[in-house]
Structures are given as C-alpha cells and as structure tokens.
Specification:
This protein is an alpha/beta fold. About 45% of the residues lie in helices and about 10% in strands. It folds into five domains: about 190 residues, Rossmann fold (3-Layer(aba) Sandwich), CATH 3.40.50; about 190 residues, P-loop containing nucleotide triphosphate hydrolases (Rossmann fold, 3-Layer(aba) Sandwich); about 100 residues, Arc Repressor Mutant, subunit A (Orthogonal Bundle), CATH 1.10.10.10; about 70 residues, DNA polymerase, domain 1, CATH 1.10.150; about 100 residues, Arc Repressor Mutant, subunit A (Orthogonal Bundle), CATH 1.10.10.
Length: about 700
C-alpha cells in the first residue's frame, strides 16, 4: 500500500493535508463507516479519492449531478487517475465501454447517479466486481430536513442491504445536527466515525445590502470585477432573463441559467461559464448548477434564499480555491411574502411547517445586527470563540439605530388615512407626493398625508415599512395584493405614547470588500498564464481550472519558477501535471522574466510569505510586526531571507550607506559569519538587524571578502 502522503503529492500536488483529512482517510482505509461534514472548499473529495488509490478494487461514488461528475472525472484523469462516470449523458456505446472498464478492473473510481443503483443489470454487474467501499457525495439529499432533498437518494438504503461488508462514506458540506442524524439513520451507518470540520470559510466576506435598485446595484458592482467569474441568484426565471439581458446590454458577459431553458442551451451556458467564455451566470435559486468551478470570485443573491442551508450552500460556490471572494445579498422584506405565498401552496402540513421554520431563520439572519460569520457557525451548532470577524458588513461598519418615531407616525397615519386598503408601493407614493394616475385618480393627492415626506425617498420608506412589519407595528395580508394594516402596537405610536427606533438608512458602498490576503503576484504575468491556460484547455476541451487553478497560476506569477524542480514546488502541481503541462508554462515564465531580469524566488513557508506580502503592500517593519504580533527582529529576518533569494528590496531603507561601509569593513577583518564579534566591535550604535542586512547583501551577491 502506497503512503498516503506520497499519493497526495504525486497525484494532487499538495505537500500537507488539510485539517481532518488524514484522520478520515485512515479510517476509510481501515474499513470503517465514516460520516464527513466538511464545508465547500474544505477538501471532501480527497477523503475518498486517496483511499481509492491506495487500495485495490473500485470505489463507487454516488453523486446527484451529471455536470459535477464530469468535472470530478476530468480533474482526476488530468492527475493521472483511472476514473470514469456512468450517466444518461453517455451514449449506449460509451456506457458499455465504461462497464467493460469496471469489469476488467481498470477503474479506481466510478461515479454514478443514485438512480443507477435501481437498475437490475447494473446492480448484477456490481455484485461481480470487487468494490472496496461506497462514497455518498452530497449526502444531505437523503434527508427531508436537508436543503436539497431528492427522493431518489432514499434508494441508497439498498447499498447496506446488499453490500453489508462494504464500508460507507457519507459526505456533505451542509447539515444541521438534525440532518446529520437523519443521514446516518437512513444510510444505515454502523459504528460510524463522525468528522465535522469547521463551517468557517475565512476567505469569504458576507454582506447584506438593502435592495433599492437591484439592477443598478448589481451592475455597479460587477463592472468592478471585469474578467472575474461570478454567480447571481434570483427567485424567478423572469428576473433571471431580464437581469442577464440588461447586463449584456451594458457590456458584461452574462448568461441566464434556469429550468425553463432547453437542456441544450442550459448545458451550453454552463460550459461557457466553466470554460471562461462568459464571466457571469444569472441563475434561479431553486435550480442546482452542479459546478465545481474553484475561481468564482463573488456570489450575489438578488433575492432572499429559502433557508440558511441554501444560503450557505450557494455562497459556498465562491472561493473554493481559498482566495478572497464576496458573498452579497440584496435584502427586501418583500421577498419574505413571496416565499410565504409559495409555502402556502405546499402539499402537506409537515412540508409547510419545515419551510416556515427555515424561512424565519433566514429572515432573522438577514435582519440581525450581529456578526454574520458567527451567526452561520451557530446555526450549524458550531461554537465560535470570536464575537466579531473582519470581513462581514456588521463587523466592518455596524448599522446605526435612530429615533424614527416621527417618520413612523407619518407612515402609520397614511395607512390609516387610506383605510388600510393599500400596499407599500401605493403608500410610499402618497407620502412622497407621486402624481401617478393610481393616486391622483383616487383623489389621494387630497389626503393630509400626501407629500408630507421630503427627507426620505420611496426605497428608504419601503425599507422602513418592512422593518415595521418585522417589529409588529404593521401587518400585511398574505394574498397577492399585500395590503398593509395597523396593529395594536401601532396605535400607541400614533398617540405619542411609544417611541420607535429603526435602522438608519444604509449608505454603505456596494463594492468589493475582499480581504487583502491574496498571494502577491505579477498581474501581467498572471494574465499571460491565464491566456495560455485558456488556449491549452480549449484544445483539450477541458475547463481551464482542470489544467491549473488560479491559485497555482498566482504562485507561478509570484515565484517565477524556471526549472522543472522549481515548478514542482507550486501548489497543485503533481507528477502527471508536471509531465503534461510544465513545459509551455515554464517557457512563458522564462520569456517574461528574461528581458526584465527577474530571477526565480524560493517558495517560502507560510509565515515568511505573509510578511513578504505585507511588505509588498507598502507596510514598514513596525507596522508588519504589530499586525502579525511578532518581534521586529523576526520581520527583519523574514525579509532578509527573501532578499537573499532574489526579492527586490532596497536595504538602504534599513541601513544607511555609511553604516554599510563600516560593517563591511569589520566583516573583512573578522568574517561575515561572526555576528556577535562584529556587534561587539561596532558597539551600541549598530543593531543586529543592520549587521544582518549587510550579511544578507554579501550572501546575495556571492561577494568574496578580501
């Protein structure tokens, strides 16, 4: 049996495992049933892929989405792994070829849809081949309490019934404790080992913005992310089509994706997105995309998601490569009523009860003033020691409350004057003095509340109304007219007996707020490498990220590898990718570096790389030391290491030229290795940091001291 660390590096190009991966892999190899709850981007796939490579036999992977299977298999094949998928997208001849590979022991992994297990012919074939274990991906689909319940997943109980001696591995990115227990029970896991990684996605920033003019809000953000991939989710097909068209009209490469499109067109749009022939996909929330694209830089929700599980799963499609990414939700309380009407149409009382509970948790999250990240972790029963983060709207710019009693009295009075027979749109029109026919034609311009609001616009008033609804000062009918009426609470406000505090209108700018934590790299070279990757991917009919991820390209553009050995140190470069793809990328890097006289840089460990990144941002030694909680001498040491290895640093900033001359003279007498003696000779006017900088200058230039 091969060493799992060797397999990790050989096939996947990683030097170390992520948290929990090694423990999970060893339990799977030991033949135990395992339940894995690990967030998107946490490395779930490796937990069954590596055991399949170190054991004999074939691993059967159950996956719910055809496109996801293809992505996984394409990536594995590029890494030199024997894998295939079997689903309805293959012709009968192609399916027969895959079955022959299975029967001839030529596959390490076979991906199938859950329905495939119900086919007698396939089931009989499975019983004739050696299966080492079954992996159930997206296992939450088996639970009615899960956010993406699929009845066909209930058939998976057949595995335990007919393959009692085969281990089962259930994997999911989102599951509450209730869903987790449901999965374990329905799959019949025995003496299972349970692993739950943190749900925290530190590279994602979470923001909720009041929905005012969603088209303009989204457009103004997307234009700042030109050339980067993003997903925009909407409630309805109509909104998807309209938004995609308007973005296209404004020069943005955007395409719609929803169940109303033909299978051919939907598949084409998805492939264009995966292959980076378009930047933005606008999709319905209810329709699963099933993509494994790692470099989605932002996910925008045009409308409120149905539940926190949906929200977490959908935002989880951003930043799977670990690089900073934005998650933005445009929130309007009006979306809540859309879902309430939808829930009312559900078939059973149990379904309605579950859906209402999920919706209320989502609304609480959207309206909360607490840290978004902490709330998400708490929802999934994870305790967070932190009460604040540095990358959500509530922590970066907390919302202020203000005494809104006067404006609330105006709103409530208008509802009363209109005899509690109109909705929010009509009421805001009356308050702001609209001359619309629906108002003037009913003589509502003659009301005492007509035009009495001049300090807030209609969008802001609508936001106030939604907040009054959530606080119980107004109620809204559940029908299509959404008529507003007063409550017992509102009467005390109208009589001046109670003050009301509302959220101050949000003036935060709707722009990218990604953390400055990316690998500092040469952007010109990065873009050249992206272009090369795209050319190579198109020739092989593969998604570009299957060739190399953005993270790998950024490292290439940061460290400038110019030999195969240096190239192999880049994250994600395994033996097969080194053999297949290193040559053209190395040539591109060499051609770029030669006229600029750029030398390869040693790939540093994480702590040195962080220091270097901060220095490249323009921070000085003291600032870096304070930010990192390290001694200034340590920061000097990090930078000296990078300077010796070729980093462009002007050491005159740290040692004035006159001092350099003196230190160099002492080194000539004593030798540049003898730092303590040199410091003793030079005295208190010279620091160890200054002495070491001159030593670094000698080491970099290979100067022979005479």
């Amino acid at each position: 049996m091969q060493d799992i660390h060797q397999v990790l590096e050989q096939y996947f190009g990683y030097k170390t495992f992520r948290p929990l991966q090694e423990e999970i892999i060893r339990d799977v190899i030991a033949g135990k049933d395992v339940f894995v709850l690990m967030p998107t981007g946490g490395g779930k796939s490796l937990c069954y892929q590596i055991p399949s490579l170190v054991q004999s036999g074939t691993t059967i992977v159950v996956s719910p989405l055809i496109s996801l299977m293809k992505d996984q298999v394409d990536g594995l094949v590029q890494n030199g792994i024997r894998a295939a998928y079997l689903n309805s997208s293959l012709s009968p001849g192609e399916q027969a070829a895959v079955l022959r590979q299975l029967q001839n022991k030529q596959l390490a992994l076979l991906y199938i849809a859950p329905e495939r297990l119900a086919q007698d012919q396939f089931f009989r074939i499975l019983q004739t081949v050696f299966i080492n274990f079954f992996a159930i991906d997206e296992a939450h689909c088996i639970s009615q309490w899960g956010h993406d319940f699929r009845p066909e997943y209930r058939q998976l109980a057949i595995i335990r019934k007919h393959f009692r001696d085969k281990p089962l591995v259930a994997l999911t990115a989102t599951a509450t404790p209730r869903v987790k227990n449901d999965i374990i029970e329905r799959l019949g896991l025995r003496e299972e080992q349970i692993y739950q990684a943190s749900f925290n996605r530190p590279n994602l920033s979470y923001r909720i913005i009041p929905k005012n003019d969603p088209l303009s809000q989204i457009h103004d953000y997307v234009v700042t992310k030109k050339g980067e991939s993003g997903i925009i989710y909407c409630q309805s097909r109509k909104t998807v089509g309209h938004l995609a068209s308007r973005l296209q009209e404004n020069g943005i490469r955007a395409l719609p994706y929803h169940a109303g499109l033909s299978d051919v067109l939907r598949k084409k749009h998805q492939e264009q997105f995966i292959n980076e022939d378009t930047d933005v996909i606008v999709a319905t929330i209810a329709f699963g995309m099933g993509i494994d694209k790692p470099n989605v830089r932002y996910v925008i929700h045009h409308d409120l998601p149905q539940s926190l599980e949906h929200y977490y799963q959908e935002t989880g499609r951003a930043g799977r490569d670990g690089l900073p990414s934005d998650c933005i939700l445009l929130y309007s309380y009006g979306d809540v009523f859309f879902y309430e009407r939808f829930i009312a149409e559900k078939q059973s009382e149990e379904e309605r009860r579950i859906s209402k509970a999920q919706l209320h948790r989502m609304v609480d999250y959207a309206q909360s003033k607490l840290c978004r990240r902490v709330q998400l972790l708490q929802y999934f029963a994870e305790t967070s020691l932190q009460k604040k983060c540095d990358s959500c709207d509530n922590c970066l710019s907390p919302q202020e409350m203000f005494d809104a009693t006067i404006i609330v009295q105006k709103i409530l009075s208008c509802v009363y004057r209109l005899r509690q027979r109109f909705g929010a749109n009509h009421i805001t029109g009356v308050l702001t003095g609209s001359k619309a026919q629906g108002i003037v034609g009913r003589n509502h311009h003659l009301l005492s509340t007509y035009g009495i609001v001049t300090d807030y616009d209609r969008n802001q008033l609508r936001t106030f109304i939604y907040e009054l609804l959530s606080q119980g000062y107004l109620r809204q009918s559940g029908d299509q007219y959404a008529i507003l009426s007063l409550t017992s609470k509102s009467r005390s406000v109208l009589k001046g007996m109670e003050k009301v505090f509302l959220t101050k209108p949000d003036i935060r700018i709707f722009t990218s707020r990604q953390k400055e934590a990316e690998t500092a790299c040469d952007l010109r070279l990065f873009n050249k490498l992206r272009f090369l990757r795209k050319q190579m991917a198109d020739k092989q009919n593969l998604p570009p990220y299957i060739i190399f991820s953005d993270r790998s390209l950024k490292e290439m553009a940061a460290y400038f590898p110019q030999t195969s050995e240096q190239f192999s140190q880049i994250t994600g470069v395994g033996a097969e990718k080194l053999r297949m793809h290193a040559k053209p990328f190395l040539q591109e890097i060499i051609d770029y570096c030669k006229p600029l006289k750029i030398c390869p840089i040693i790939k540093y460990n994480n702590t040195v790389a962080i220091t270097l990144g901060l220095y490249r941002e323009g921070k000085n030694i003291r600032q870096i030391a304070e930010k990192r909680g390290l001694a200034e001498s340590t920061i000097h040491g990090h930078l000296q290491q990078t300077y010796i290895n070729g980093e462009s640093i002007n050491i005159d900033k740290f040692v004035v030229p006159e001092k350099q001359k003196v230190i160099l003279q002492v080194f000539k007498e004593l030798g540049y290795e003898r730092l303590a003696l040199t410091k003793e000779r030079l005295g208190e006017d010279y620091s160890y940091a200054e002495i070491r900088w001159v030593q670094a200058k000698i080491l970099k230039s290979n100067t022979i001291l005479e």
